[in-house]
Amino acid sequence: MNRYLIKFTKQGLVRYTSHLDMMRLFQRAFKRGNIRLAYSSGFSPHPKISFAHPLSLGFTSSSEYLEIVCAEAGEPSAIQEALNRSLPHGIHSTRCKEIPEPGKTMASLVRWASYRITLPGADHPGGQQFLEYIDQPVLIGKKRKKGSKELVDVDMKPLIHNATVVSDDASGLSLDVIVSAGSSANLNPEVLLQSFLDSVKRGELFPVVQFERTELHDETMISLWNIFS
Amino acid sequence: MTLNKQLELLLPKVEKPARYIGGELNTVSKVTEEGMTRFGFAFPDTYELGMSYLGLQILYKSLNDMDSVFCERIFAPALDMERELRSAGLPLFTLETKTPANELDLLGFTLQYELSYTNVLNMLDLSRIPLRSCDRGETDPFILGGGPCAFNPEPVADFFDFFLIGDGEESIRQVCELHQQWKRSKADRNVFLSTISSLPGVYVPGFYQPMYDEKCTVSEIKVLNDSAPARVTKSVLSDLNSFDFPEAPIVPLIEVVHDRSVIELFRGCTRGCRFCQAGMIYRPVRERSKESILALADAQLKSSGYDELSLLSLSTSDYSCFEPLALELVAWGRENNVSLSLPSLRLDSFSFQVLQEIQKYKKTGLTFAPEAGTQRLRDVINKSITEDDIFTGVKQAISLGWYTVKLYFMIGLPTETKEDLDGIVNIAAEIMQLARQGGGSGKSNRFQLSVSISNFVPKAHTPFQWVAQDEPHVFTEKHMYLKDRLKKLRGVQYQYHGSDASRIEAVLARGDRRLSDVIEQAWSLGAKFDGWREHFRYDLWLQAFDATGIDPTFYTSGTVSTGTVLPWNVIDSGVTTDYLQAEWESAKGEVQTQDCRLGCTGCGINTFTTCPMEGSQ
Ligand code: SF4
User: Do A44 and B362 touch (CB under 8 A)?
Assistant: First the structure.
């Protein structure tokens, strides 16, 4: 009971806040908006609030998901309004609905994530180059090992579901990719793009690349929002 | 490309980019208009430290409450960001509108600790503002300084156009009003400085010239401008309740050092510890009313969503209605899911009752600050805590389930002997003994005592402003002496401060104007973030002393204080020199002076403002 799914966007400079910052920021926003969250029982109770999937520092998103359990029932629209009054500039809730409880956590349902990747400006590799790169039978990317600075090789091929060129002109190159996300398999699109740029000897462009998450999906490619409708 | 766009390109390259983005909850944005005063509040250290400083929130509100003023924030960029700014050729900027600092009208630095002075120079340099006041032109901002270090501004006098001495929230507004009048009049810089120099609390160093005798001590301070007073009395906000305190503090997007709601309980302190500059310069004690505190707690919670509230003062338990306030706040916190933090509590039985309530789940550890190891030395420094207080407190703490205790001591205090150092070890040993006796349930094994040792730094405007500081090697010997003995006690941890940094702090704390060359030299050699152990470079400071021919021992030995007048003589803290001298005599005689809540001890502050404490109990 009183379990809600909240969809929100993250735009502008606030994209430089980390996953932990976002957690703190939302807890405060609920407190500020006078929405009382339910607490876990036990020795050090914590509020029942969790994100479906962490967003990398520096990424914008048009489609983030947060689930909460409230201490008392409320209208989803009222929760959304109160939240929007309490969030800092750049973070905005677009939808909110009640979802059944108990159930699997959102985080455990996530399998795939869609990203829009943009290289702004006229000077960029061609979209065709990207598609050729992706077409190779094995795609080696360099991934940071958990908890260390060491880089290890990963084959990205099975982690890429789909990749398309959205636009390729003087204003920039824009790509849409769907890659693995979640606890069992995960590919950060930064790793993919870094490898691609390195392969075409344009690694210096990496700092200007913009990443935006556009959707999270379950294993059947249904968006998280639609799972419970 | 706008500065904003250019900055965005740097952000992916630096650590914690959110330090530089602004846009936090409750920040102010304004449409800028001609004739407005654009103010930059500059904190000469990192974002995380600056945003934990209550004064920033107070002044930010005070200034932005005026329609004609727009106050924005500026922090020292971390080393990686500084590198990026310099290589991209970008100036230091405000967080709110990303305006280059040199386009502002007034740039105010808060001077909380002496070891931030090189950061001030670095920030001016990054802002492309001439370092020295005399080199600034009509288009440059006015550079002002405030905070505790402004009570001896002489070492940095050449870098500032003026200082605000004392409580800043009211005086800064007056300065801004006069700034707008001056702007309309189109007169030159000097006219503005001359006008404000007659305001209480305003010190324009360019209007004063120290004269030195053959020993290099100050013989006289000449006043060069007719409107500048012979002595500058500090500004005093006589009633805290009459001035609006922040109800909607800025809430950082990233974790900062103190990430919580803060309400100032009272300003000032009556205890009169003789080493403590804060206890002298913030007199008299002025309390915020209980009603106002409770209302502010509510308002801040609603506007910030913080889940922790802290009360700020020099000595929380001294608040005159502490018991009812604490009980009401505890109940309020329980109702609103807000945890309370009450620093600097005197640990009597009532405090334990409160602490048990607020630290029910998470006992964070208790602190005691005896400062000196023997009663004799505590009499010298006028610290009223006794061994009995400490041991009774610790016993009670152990029985109630606390198992971390922290002790603060200072070494190098005037008249200190080996016996006093041994006293530190004895107190630690005694506490460990109590822990063994009190435990029983096996918990005693977990008992941790941490002993933190700082080095005494004689400060201006205190009874110890005339005394010598230990040489660094003496400090180091004492650290080793204590370490050897404390490491034999199981469960005791020992921390101490760097001796070299304490020496530089001491030089600057009682410095005169000749030191500006040393500071500039040290900065140009690469000194910055001197308050950070990992960044402090003593070798650079020694080079700077060498290059300028200035002997640091002149300052640390106290010779600097033997002139006809003290270098900081123009600044009047309200506490008389006679009082400080009498206190120094009492110190030598090992005689304590009572807490002046129990009866006025004649510090002199009541001769120019009402002292609410005078015979209050
Ligand atoms: S005037 Fe008297 S009571 Fe007031 S602070 Fe000074 S000594 Fe204490």
Answer: yes
